[in-house]
Amino acid sequence: MRFKCVSKLWLCTIEDPNFVAMHLKHSTLGGTNWYILLTDWYFSRDQRSSLYPQKSLTLASQSEIEVPFISPKGYYGVVGSCNGLICFAETNAEDRIQRIFLWNLFTRKHKAILSSLPDYPFVDMYAAHMVLGFGYSDRIDDYKVVRITYFPDKYGRYLGEIDPKVDVYSLCTNLWQTVEFNFKCELSHFSRVSFNGNLHWLSMGIDEDRRRSFRSIITFGIAGEVFNEMALPKNCFIGITYNRAYLAELNSSLALLINRRDLIGRSYEKCYIWVMTKYGMPDSWTKLHTLDLNEGVSRFHGFTRSGELLMQTYQHELISWDPSVGLTRLLQKLGRFDLVTMVESLVFP
Question: Between 1.10.1740.10, 2.60.260.20, 3.90.1150.10, 2.120.10.80, what CATH number should domain 31-343 receive?
Fold first, then answer.
């Protein structure tokens, strides 16, 4: 970025869309251009996050990155990252305002998107449940933010009488618009993946025993702005009394992580890794690995480019699992944090 001040010609070249696309393609293929950003849920006064090269997740390789738009009093969540752009969201239920930021930390440029929260008569916004997603489609060369808001009915149910409201923001048009959502399910905000031009969430419903259970994968086509449903592996939850599930991307395939837990002391945990070998074909789901986890895993953060699975323990430590190495402790005592994987790019937000 230091070369942008050399001359106007160099500046025009670096910001040319063709050059940006060529640089992104080169960065994506290179193993040294991938990074991991750790953002604490509650920013300190210096408004900084920690950046690590993917190949060296140690304190010695840590870089402190200033987040320019962060307020020390605010709560910000990471929505996702695509092509080097990171999407942050801050929600103020009291003022019914949401601020979304698209940030390229490599060019130090960001864009703020301010919008009013969706409203529903006689419903307290503090009780509303919001699910977000951020993705890109090369078909239309556009980045979009999806916001799905669930309003509780008079019985406190999110799958009751009130249908969710879906708003979609387009970076190209700089506009929000409403999109139909015709599925009677609740999407998990812990698991969202942008992959193959679609956004993916795990959906949950109420089974015959009136318990919440995972039902399917809901996809959103970024180009066509249409929701669809995709089946989970058959019988993947049978025999599991208590579990959590997450979506991820592994080696250019959609992956499903199922964490089986024992409620008595959390003494026994297994993780099953499923991969959809042919995208869009549920019959191609294949169980790839079964992990014995004795660490007590509270959250999965997805895979690195080299295939390492990053996980967070109940002691707020970051650990990884590699098929050839096994479990490795990386970083200790991080507090509550979001983790996002990104590639170095010149994409302008």
Answer: 2.120.10.80
